[in-house]
Amino acid sequence: MEAKSILDADMATVAGWLRAGMAWWLDELRAMLPAGLRRQGGVLPGFVAWHGPGDWQKCGKGDSPPVLVDPALCLVREMTLPPLGAADLQRLVRLDADRILPIPSAQLVIAARADPADRTRVTVVGLRRETVRAMLEELQAAGIAPTRFGLAVDGAPGAMALDLTEALVDAGMIGPTREAAPPWWVLVGFLFALNGGLLVARDIEEVARLEALVAEQAPAVNAARRIANRIAGGQRQAQELAARRRQQDALGVLAAVTEALPPQAWVQRYGWDGGSVRLSGYKRAGVDVVGALRKSPQLVDVAAADAETVAEVPTGQPFDLTARIRPAAPKAVRP
């Protein structure tokens, strides 16, 4: 089948394809069932035994009992064919019916059934269309409207050897029928629902197991979180302390000022406010205190302070200076 033909098909054709595909899939599932579940044995509680026009008996009760046709009215042949699904087997037999049966297929209603124990052993049945018409007319006149037809078993009243209903529907002899789902289909539905329920139950059990595992590991996880929080807090405190030490290193600033100050100068007053220093004192004549302090890598913006002029003394000239402390580069603190 080409993709173009699928796109050009109308909804009725597509629905027919879907029904055919579903029927094929159900036939394949039916073929995979054990032989005991596929066997059409058992005795019908009510049926019509048809032996020919004017020769039939109704056994049991019911307005629509199955009709069991006498094998003497049918052409029956046993043969060996490849194992196929039910739908494929019916198509194969009908295509080759003129070779299998001695009467032209146009005059027959043809059905086939594989042996449940050995699917290569096939029973082919041909029932004349004129026999079917006579049977339907006589039953209708008697007020019987059967919805199922089958081949009777010799010597076993009420037993059906082969179901002819689908063959009669395909031949246009009767209308399509709807049968109640066989018991094994009910079993399949129950098992499907049970399987879904088991999957849901297993999923719930797995979720419960994971919740129990999480609850069991919760104390250890909480302890690990507390330890991690304490470590993070210690790191923050160490970084803050290091930053404060870099910003408030009084001894380091004093050492830097002492190292930068020329030997011919001495400090009379030293002031430090954490960000800058102020130096007041005396120096020998010709000593450049400002230039010496500017050479220090830790001091910037060295300048004379705006203050009252200090009188000179015989030992030297006064100076009053201010300078800012260069911020130190931050150092990474290892955890």
Which structural traits does this protein have?
24% strand, 10 helices, 12 strands, five-stranded mixed beta sheet, four-stranded antiparallel beta sheet
Question: Can you walk me through this structure?
Answer:
The chain has 335 residues and is α+β, with helices and mostly antiparallel strands. The protein contains 10 helices and 12 strands. The protein has helices at 3-8, 11-32, 35-38, 86-95, 97-100, 129-141, 165-170, 183-247, 250-260, 289-294, and strands at residues 47-52, 55-59, 67-69, 74-80, 108-114, 121-128, 149-153, 156-163, 265-272, 276-283, 299-304, 317-325. Strand 1 (47-52) and strand 2 form a beta hairpin. It starts with a helix and ends in a 10-residue tail after the last strand. 15% of the residues are buried.
How would you sum up this structure in a few lines?
The chain has 335 residues and is α+β, with helices and mostly antiparallel strands. It has helices spanning 3-8, 11-32, 35-38, 86-95, 97-100, 129-141, 165-170, 183-247, 250-260, 289-294; strands spanning 47-52, 55-59, 67-69, 74-80, 108-114, 121-128, 149-153, 156-163, 265-272, 276-283, 299-304, 317-325.
Please give the share of residues in helix. 40-55%
**Topology order in helix (H) and strand (E) letters:** HHHEEEEHHEEHEEHHHEEHEE
Question: Mean pLDDT, nearest integer?
Answer: 82
Helix count from the secondary structure assignment: 10
Low-confidence runs:
none
**Rg measurement, Å:** 54 Å
Structural class: alpha+beta
Distance between the termini: 71 Å
The portion of residues forming beta strands comes to 15-25%
Major β-sheet strand ordering: 2-1-3-7-8
Shape: rod-shaped
Largest sheet: 5 strands, mixed
Per DSSP E runs of 2 or more residues, the count of β-strands stands at 12
